[in-house]
Queue: 4 jobs
Job 1
Amino acid sequence: MAEATQGTGAQAEDRTDEPGLTGMLLKDAAVILAALSLWAAADTWYAVTGLWIAQVVAVGDAILVGLLLAGLFHEWGHFSGAIASGAVAQRREAGGLSLFRFEFDYEANDHRQFHWMTYGGHILHWSIFLILLIALPLDTLGRIALVSAVFGFIVFATVIEYNIVKDTWAGVDPEERLKQLTTRDFQQAGMIGTLGGLFAIALLS
């Protein structure tokens, strides 16, 4: 998913409009804390009252917050992997609800840097999944749904990126391979990710 939406053509010499890293991280940290606080309030509401509407709100919040967490960690993981490899990767302001935080310059970077960028996303989204799995007592449906939504995103991202990584390891140009992604690819990955999330709910319940 992330590779398909990283913009191309970021020029190493033109970084005058690049937003500051600290400011971007603080904004995303504030978004994450606010989202978790709303979900925690709904989860507590259900735990205290047992109302069915509180349960619905808690689960709905959990799904949205889980996807947000996984998406943000995934994108920052991609950026971290790119920077660790020495790749040209220019930060950018996210517009609207976009999760994309940088542009990867496919012309300036090589296959090795592309793979570092890709694996960075997977390392961080698995990291937040494990942190939540360890930190949260899974004794409410809202908490189970939060962890399961993160897992569903992981399945979605893996389905999208597996064949891309396989083909680029075989020598296919990363940018050209990403251009082959279709709406159907994302729809199929979304369905499989949803099934993965539902499986996780059933397994953890």
Job 2
Amino acid sequence: MRLALAEVKPRPRRVAENLCALEGVVSQVPTADLVAFPELFLTGYSLGDSLHRLALRQGSKELSTLAEIARRQDKWILAGAPFESPARKGEIWNAAILVGPTGEVQVSGKRYLPNFGPFEEGLQFTPADSAQVLKTPFGRIGALICYEVFFPEVARKLALQGAELLLAISASPVTSRSLFAKLIPARAIENATGFAYVNRVGVEDSMVFDGGSTFCDPRGEPLDPAVHPLPEGQRILEYELPLEEYSRYRPSRPVLRDISLLA
């Protein structure tokens, strides 16, 4: 599997422009199977009163456009956006949206919402009820969103549900970069699973986002990517992931088996 992490910045509240930029990035990595974009990339992070107006919904033209991009580019695309809860109309998730080249749409909502310092997600979004494993031809993906990396229970639940790759999309400021750098290899080791992390760059409402995107193998070791530079400090990190080899780590280090026996 070839995974591309798009360390890019959105234009706040400009969904159409961000979709156009997304397609431009995807076209830069023709060999990638899956291209992942940061948390809330389609709208920007600070939405205020625009949240409900900008949120994607089943059947919305923005969601259709995203699916059409996946079809045109023949790629799987994972991108962050606000999304109306399919269970409770009017409630909005901070979501990871996965689209495939034949029209598939899968959505996983954020369960742990930060509500401290500059973050007010708990006032804007409704937490999703449970973690969702997203299915692709390359393997099952456990999607996490930013702050959820701090909760080992989220990654563990996804791994126990059969996730073969953990992938976190993020909009984390530069002040948290060193924390994620420590947590990501730990989550990979705990779950004997590769862990990918894509974080945005740029400045929005005085918050500075500084990337730090990476991939760690099941032993917590970082993998060297092919780097595709983009304008304004943006870049794409492309990885060749031997997921079939990573599956052999679990029997030799059977953490998931042992924790399931105790559950």
Job 3
Amino acid sequence: MVITHHGGQCFKITFGDLTIVFDPIAKGATLPSVRFGADIALVSRNHPDMNGISEVSSNGKKPFIINGPGEYERSGVSVQGFLTNSQYQLGAGQTNILNTMYLVELEGMTIMHLGAMSDTMLPPKAREAIENIDILFIPVGGDGVLNASEAKKLSTVLEPHIIIPMHWSGMGEPKALDSFLQESGDTYEKVDKLTIKKKDMAEKEGAIIVVTE
């Protein structure tokens, strides 16, 4: 499995010929849009920073779209979506907007992507579904999503093998990533892409890996 970061909350995961994307960035978003083909696209919020389906419909691929709660299965990948709240870029009069966090099973690994979540605890149904988290994608940027301190506390509760911070590149509060790393003890690894297998998880307990763009 190879994980690459495309800014904000957008991560591409490839294994074999299959490509999954979380929160693809659309044209007209806060960040530059992405442009690659995906087989499965997961969208946490209906916002240009996270809903660029057209941008990942290329290179002969038309993605299977998952954009809300429920249970899904495609190409050997199992997905569960759970409703949470977000306060990111609210409209006039809004105090919260719905966000979907995803629990994904693939290649024997469990991946959790929290999207633009502002809740400091997971919903009960999500907690019941979790047995072990191999990789946790967690927002750390504040400004409508979890801030550095909240992200640190939640990641400690969830006890994943690997923590990948997001919502710090091109969005979020200034130096949000630095704040999260300081909260976490400044022990981390920085890579331009993460290549990982299930057997590697046994060596990692709460390891923070910053995947740069």
Job 4
Amino acid sequence: MNQNEIQELLQSVSDLGITELSIEKKEFKITIKKESAQGAPVYVQSAPVAATIPAAPAVAPAPAAVAADSGSSATSNAGDESKYITVKSPMIGTFYRSSGPDKDAFVSVGHDIAPGKTLCIIEAMKLFNEIESEVSGKIVKVLVDDASPVEYDQPLFLVDPA
């Protein structure tokens, strides 16, 4: 979907008086909400799948970083990481490891986690969303720096389920 199509969609939403519209296709997802006080549509989210497909191999740089630290053991580390579960971002936003700058991180390398445990916060449009674990295990690696932007489906943590 190009910019002209999005503008036409915004105009149609405005003309028809629709307050919210969500479209999800194979290539993209878009949500448009219109604030009733202003009457103008507000572009909320567009997550092109083309941008998220490269995010999946983002785990691949991790062995390279390990290889830089440990020399020639890149081949054995690549096989080791396949046994880990990758916790991915459920949304686009800003990644935070703790609830505040003076607070401890929710989880760090070596922490045990269980389903329902808060792993991080992702801020999206001034809303702070607690991301909870869906798996049990031990945090092996944090793949994102604190206060950095993340994409939909971007790997955040590696978890050893053993």
